[in-house]
Amino acid sequence: MKFVAAAPSEQPTGPYGPLVAMPELVPDALRAAVAKIAPSRVPALTQHVFEATSNAQRTSSLAPLRAFVHSWAVFVAIERIPERAARLRELERVVNEGLHDPTAAIAEIQAIREAAEAEAGL
Predict the structure, then answer these.
(1) Which of 12, 51, 58, 67 is the most exposed place for a label (fewest CB within 10 A)?
(2) How far is C-alpha 96 from the geometric centre of its chain's CA atoms?
C-alpha cells in the first residue's frame, strides 16, 4: 500500500481513520496530540522544545523552533493514522535489516513523509 499526499483539508481514508485531528502547528497543540497518540514520546518532545527554545534564544533565530514544529508535525501526521505508522515502521525495518534492495522501501518512506508534510501544511 502506498500513501499519497492529501490536500490539507482532506483526511486520509482508511478503515479506522485518524486517532486525532491534525493539530495547530504550535508546541502546546503538538504536545497534546502526542500525549494522545504516543504518550511515551512526550518526554522526547518536551526535551526537544526546551532545546529548540534555548537554541533560538542563544542564536537569535527562529530556525530551531521551526525545525521542532516541522519534526513533530510530521510525527503526529504519521502516527495519528495507525496503518500509515505501521507501514512506515515496516519499511524502516526493511531498510535497517539490509537483506533486500532498499530502493523501493526508501521511495515509499519518502512518499509517506511527503504526504505527512502536506497533510500538516508544511
Answers:
(1) 58
(2) 19
